[in-house]
Amino acid sequence: MGQIEEMTISQVSIVSILRLKQLTITVYNYRRMLVLTVEQMREIERMADANGLSYAQMMQNAGQGAASAIIARYVGPLDKRRVLLLIGPGNNGGDGLVCAAALHDAALPLQLSVYLLKARPNDPLLEALHHRKIAVINESGADNLALTEALAHADIVVDALLGTGVARPIRGELQILLQQVKQRRAENAAPTLVALDGPTGMNYDTGALDPNTIPADVTLSFHALKRGHVCYPAAGACGEIACVPIGIDEQTCAVTPVVEWLDDGWLKRHLPKRRHDANKGSHGRAWVIGGCDDYIGAPALAAMAAYRAGAGLVTLSVPASIKLAVATLCSEATFTEQNSSNPADNLSNVKALLVGPGLGQSQAAEQRLRLALDFAQRQPCVCILDADALNMAARSDELMILAQRLATRLIFTPHPGEMARLMGMTVAEVQADRIGHALKFAKQTGAVVILKGAYTVIAAPDDRAAVLPFNNPALAVAGTGDVLAGAIAGFCAQGLAPFEAACCGAYLHGLAGELWRAVNGDAGLLASDLLPLLPKARYKIR
């Protein structure tokens, strides 16, 4: 990959762009996008520096890349935009100073001014602005009148105040500055706010947000996403996110755990192929165990989702009392009773066993879970534990031990409440570090873990994880979890390994939700609405 300073605006190649209502990620010149901790980013920068890409050059690349992104997004050749850059005392401020110089050098009709939060004595980057005759405010301190004037007329404000290395509470001069900007934006929703790396006050590891933080319209994250960008509440304050390269090649990114931001390209590489001479046996068999008198629809939704994800045959086991009702909802499934004498009867070819949708938590339900885990011990299938199966495992060490004996053939699908019960913590604690807790629980259990929610996290025990680009409130309705679990079972039935099956099933589920939202909005979705959209989502990214 070439250095940023060698690229013009027209040469910046956008190779992957995903536009959603709440989040846009633009990836320049990368085959994949990582989601890093602050320490991982520091380590990558250290390795890059040791390999000959100096810190100074990375800062030049970051600032020039940010300027290119701002011009590409907001500035036409004749636009007389006023741009105010707010400069902090550290490296983020240095990125902002380089950005100011690069905006000047673009030879566009921009009116630039720079506000210094703190003095930067003997800084060559600041001297470069003086050489270009860019207006610098507050260089000697206490120049609030000039700041007020600049804010009153600014079209674009660039937040280069605090970067990834600062997570302390905002106080003093910085707090006063942010309050001035916030007041100005409250008056008429202007100016546009562009944040370098992230809006000042976000925690880049946890997604925590200082009360003084001003939400950005655009965030320019350097090299890769950071965990805070995809964890709430900070995820809701970043606006549109663009990842700008700073000259670091992929070979320098050797960090663990590897957390990847999924996109259509990832799915294209991993979706199972369909042979033209295939039959139903070619695409595998899934067995869904669930349902009780109170939850009739859940197992039917899961079974239909497995079919819609591409499974060749789906078998259901439900209590006799609801079998007719479930068969009416899912006429394509075959049925078998679940008992200790027949698990091998016509089921030796099962590749995916899903236990939990609508199962309930009665003694009879617990016995059904035990029988299912016993079957999975003796058959080479992937076992997915969902819903009530998770709750029963959370309160029974014996059931958890039985499940963990499946090791790499096990998938857990908890929402935050179920995850909290499984890990013995509060929901707030889970949500405070979604990626970290998912990776930790995957390592503890040997299973693939799907932590559902806005930007669902999928973690494997080998230190791989993926984050999905979906945060759709329309999916916050009963039954969508059953569809998700069924879709994952469908991909396991087709022969994908647990992590890849989980990623494909969850991604298509999320994309189906986006297809629905594009037509219908944020509310009113029924879980069954997703079923016909699963194959459409798959076809869309084929």
Describe the fold and architecture.
- By secondary structure, the protein is α/β, with parallel strands linked by helices.
- The chain has 2 domains: 225 residues, 3-Layer(aba) Sandwich (Rossmann fold), CATH 3.40.50.10260; 261 residues, 3-Layer(aba) Sandwich (UDP-N-acetylmuramoyl-L-alanine:D-glutamate ligase).
- It contains 18 helices and 21 strands.
- The strands form 2 sheets. A 12-stranded mixed β-sheet has the order 10-3-12-21-20-19-18-17-16-13-14-15, sandwiched between helices.
- Helix 17 crosses helix 18.
- The longest helix has 23 residues.
- It starts with 13 loop residues before the first strand and ends with a helix.
- The N terminus is likely disordered.
Pick out its properties.
542 residues; alpha/beta; Rossmann fold; UDP-N-acetylmuramoyl-L-alanine:D-glutamate ligase; 2 domains; twelve-stranded mixed sheet; nine-stranded mixed sheet; elongated; disordered N terminus
The count of domains is 2
Mean pLDDT: 90
| Classification by helices and strands | alpha/beta
* CATH topology term of the largest domain: UDP-N-acetylmuramoyl-L-alanine:D-glutamate ligase
Radius of gyration: 26 Å
Please tally the β strands and state the result: 21
**Main sheet record:** 12 strands, mixed
| Uncertain residue ranges | 1-30
What is the CATH class name of the largest domain? Answer: Alpha Beta
What's the arrangement of strands in the largest beta sheet? 10-3-12-21-20-19-18-17-16-13-14-15
Beta-strand percent range: 15-25%
CATH superfamily of the largest domain: Ribokinase
Distance between the termini: 28 Å
CATH architecture annotation of the largest domain: 3-Layer(aba) Sandwich
Overall shape: it is elongated
Helix share bin: 25-40%
